[in-house]
Amino acid sequence: MCSARSLEEANESCDLALVSSRLMECPANARQPLRSGLKHNLWDFCYGGGNSDWGHMGKNKILVDQKPTIIVVEDTALDEQLTLAAIGGLGFEVTVVVARDGEEALKFFRGAQADLILLDIKLPKLNGLSLLEWIRTNPRLGTVPVVIVSNSDEPGEVRLAYERGASGYVFKPTDPDAYLRQIKAACLFWLRARLAPSSKV
What we know:
alpha/beta; 5-stranded parallel β-sheet
């Protein structure tokens, strides 16, 4: 049944598969408002929450405090949940930090090291393109891959993201399974397949 209440009940059950299934019962034009209305409680309540590193997901430990580090900047609850699920399925341990608005992300970036940044564009307080410009002028983060993950595929916005230094641009699919595949593929490429610049001379 397609309703905000049925999605909220699924969210409260800590079952991402059920949330995804309920969402797919809705017409395509109704999904985005419902996605935006979901709370972050699947992350906050079930997995410990906050913008610090994951310690566990359910009973299965999925990361320890070691490299590589992925910074996720995302303000939409379900998109955050899907991104974290995709990262959890990479098959190797990572450290994940989550920021939910631009100012929170900027505060973290000022003292952070990262191996990959997944960055939404439409963020509260400070938008993703402004953050991207700051990242590209920062000596520590200037060469870190920044992949834009956005629900906009407008050509001008895509071009602007690349002009400001985006390493890649992923359009958010409405199908949760496709979303998981896209994020997982991006992470695998930027963390494992590419040849990164060496710090050695």
